Amino acid sequence: MTLPRYPLMIASLLVSFSTGMVLFSLLHRQEPPPSQAPAIHVAPETQDSKTLSDLGTPPDWSSLDAWQDSIRRDEFTRLLQEVFCLGSGWRQWIDITGSEAVIRTRNGDPKAAYHLRFLQDGKSHAAMHTWHAARELPPARPGKPLANLHIALDPGHIGGKWAQMEERWFRMPGETPVCEGDLTLTVAGLLKAKLENLGARVSLVRADAQPLTKLRPADLTEAARASGEASNPADIKKISERLFYRTAEIRARARLVNESLNPDLVICLHFNADGWGNALTPTLVGRSHCHVLVNGAFRDDEIALEDQRYEMLRKLLGRSHDEETLAASRIAESLATITKLPPYTYNAFSANARNINGNPYLWARNLLANRLYDCPVVFCEPYVMNSRQDYARIQAGDYEGERTVAGATRPSIFREYANAVADGLVKHYASLRPRR
Ligand SMILES: [Zn+2]
User: Can you give the pTM of this predicted structure?
Assistant: First the structure.
């Protein structure tokens, strides 16, 4: 566990300790808020019989050959222990010798192993990735700090007619529904224009309120049944929907990002939420907050799955962590300054989050998107859609300039979000790109 260094954070950790588990369970991308949670349980991926994640495929371990002799033993061990693994369970799967890491590749076969040789002292190795870190870009053109850069924007969720199924939708009686997938798409459109104006090439991972995956819940009924979690038709329906909108959809986005777009950076755009209860009579809360995520913090039971173990090593060897953290720190800083929101704080004993560098706004988590996308990924979670303040701002919609909303004069929530991310990106690249 990384100990917090900021007094503010220690204070918030203490405050949040009692409420932490509740807040944590409500946090976005976790299961739905308790009052609307279906009466099913997500498969504990700890069952001995389970060797792959939902809709996962057996990994091609030979694809790690590209990273033979690419990383020193001490760096490999540091990243494994301080970034990627929360517990010590990895020792069951990875044996670090003087010259190599021996990685178990098949759970049922202790002898099946992949041998990764470490880079020896005195030797060097060129960076092995298709994306460009800020330091690897050519000097920027005047007035175009993001020139030569390809950024992909991933508006979280699907939205539109799928939003209710996704459980990222609620409506106060007589008012406009709040639908996260549509909010993130609005931010993505505004941000795309801003970044292009700053010189970047920008791709949208999703450009409308339709899924990328060709699969639909009906195609996933067998997979839902095979999960062993469902005991009745209602549960099977619920699980097949979740496999569609979350798992199959993000896997389809990962294929687009890794096989077609090949960007230098992906920004995942989300709005957070607190438990709202019944979506038709939602509860509004007083508190809003903000945080940003990078990939890491794999749990022991996640590393015990063959595909996640492989994907973790791919992420580690791809060396995106440093760039991801540098960019995410700048974006978190700009979001904090511009939105004036306090940090969201995970429980000090969180089983699946790890603080990064003592920054109260920056955390590592193992999410499907930031694990599967090969390049650096910055995952943004500002605002609480059902906080009184942000709810009023969402109801006010997008507008130019400033208006008085929820007791203060300010830009639209969408423009504020887009401005903050763009500001963070400009600062990141301006500070690290080579100068002419
Ligand atoms: Zn979201």
Answer: 0.89
Q: Which residue type is seen at 417?
A: Y
Q: Per residue in 410-432, pLDDT tens?
A: 999 999 999 999 999 999 999 99
Can you read off the two tokens belonging to residue 88?
Answer: 């010590």
- The set of residues, in sequence order, having a beta carbon less than 8 Å from that of 3 and lying 6+ positions away, is none
Taking the C-alpha atoms of residue 125 and residue 319, their distance in angstroms, rounded to an integer, is: 12
**Would you state the pLDDT for residue 24?**
33
Query: Would you place residue 321 in the very low, low, confident or very high pLDDT band (cuts 50, 70, 90)?
Result: very high
72 Cα–ligand 1 center, Å: 37
Q: Ligand 1 centroid to 188 CA: how many Å?
A: 13
Same domain, 286 and 396: yes
- What backbone phi and psi angles, to 5 degrees, belong to 380? -95, 135
Neighbour order of strands in the sheet with 100-106: 94-96, 100-106, 109-117
- Structurally, the chain folds into a number of domains equal to 2
Which residue carries 């104006």 as its tokens?
197
- Asked whether residue 389 falls in the same domain as residue 355, the answer is yes
The residues, ordered by sequence, that sit 6+ positions from 360 with a Cβ below 8 Å of its Cβ are: 4, 6, 8, 9, 12, 343, 345
Amino acid at 96: I
| CA distances from residue 24 to 20, 38, 79, 300, 387 in whole angstroms, order as listed | 6, 18, 25, 19, 16
The answer to whether residue 4 is domain-embedded is no
Last residue of a domain, one of 117, 138, 153: 117
For 253, the enclosing helix (H) or strand (E) is helix 249-255
Q: How far is the CA of 80 from the centre of ligand 1 (A)?
A: 27
Mean pLDDT of 171-199: 98
Query: In a 3-state reduction of DSSP, which class is residue 402?
Result: coil
Task: Report whether 305 contacts 52 (CB < 8 A).
Answer: yes
Expressed as residue numbers, the domain containing 99 is 61-117
| pLDDT level of residue 122 (50, 70, 90 thresholds) | confident
194 CA distance to ligand 1 middle (Å): 22
* Cβ count within 10 A of residue 18: 9
Q: What is the pLDDT of residue 48?
A: 54
End-to-end Cα separation, the chain, in angstroms: 42
Distance from residue 167's CA to the centre of ligand 1 (Å): 10
Q: Which helix (H) or strand (E) holds 326?
A: helix 321-339
